[in-house]
Amino acid sequence: MARHIWALAAALLSIRGPWVVGASDVVELTDDNFEHDTQAASGATTGDWFVKFYAPWCGHCKSIAPIWEQVATELKGLVNVAKVDATVHQKLAKRFKIGSYPTLILFSQQKMYKYSGGRDKDALISYASVGFRADEAGPDTSSVPKVPSLLDETLEPLVADVRHILLMRKNAAVALVVIGALFGALFARLLCPRRVLVEGGKKAK
Fold first, then answer.
1. Tens of each residue's pLDDT in the chain, 205 residues
2. Structural domain boundaries in the chain
3. What CATH number belongs to 27-146?
4. Taking a C-beta distance cutoff of 8 angstroms, is the pair 29, 51 a contact?
5. pTM (2 decimals)?
6. Looking at the DSSP assignment, which residues form a beta bridge with residue 49?
7. What is the spatial distance between Cα 141 and Cα 139, in angstroms, rounded to a whole number?
């Protein structure tokens, strides 16, 4: 009897369902594991990746979440389906210029394809399977940016500060030139009538 109970329990645990912890087929990617798992920049043999960049508070992200789970399950073994919390993993958000949520990107052979189609399951599966290839030369297709080095990450804020200072100085110089020109025009206008009167008086004599 006990043997049958254990067999039944094992069978139930093997069934994947929403009540089973860890049953999701969606891979959680982070700043630390993204490149290691996807090999997006190198184009290595980990396969294609369809990645959702989301924010936990985003209503559209919450709406697409169950659909994304279905897409991951149906594409399992064909395309890797993943998600990135862009509010936490900001290096990835910056690297891929994530400006709205959710942003869906298909990574394949060192290229990235930003998805802008329908959000239903069939449309997403179709795009991830073969549809993205039709966008090969489209405006939403680009090479995967390289992984920023430690030196890049260190120098970038310094370069940004220098650019900001130069821009401020440039703007200040332009402002001074404009102000100088305005004052010059104002003084010229004030002095010109007086000069005419003086010259007119000399002629009268």
1. 555 555 555 454 444 444 444 589 999 999 999 999 999 999 887 899 999 999 999 999 999 999 999 999 999 999 999 999 999 999 999 999 999 999 999 999 999 999 999 999 999 999 999 999 998 888 899 999 999 876 655 655 555 566 667 777 767 667 778 787 776 777 666 666 555 445 555 544 4
2. 27-146, 151-191
3. 3.40.30.10
4. yes
5. 0.67
6. 80, 107
7. 6
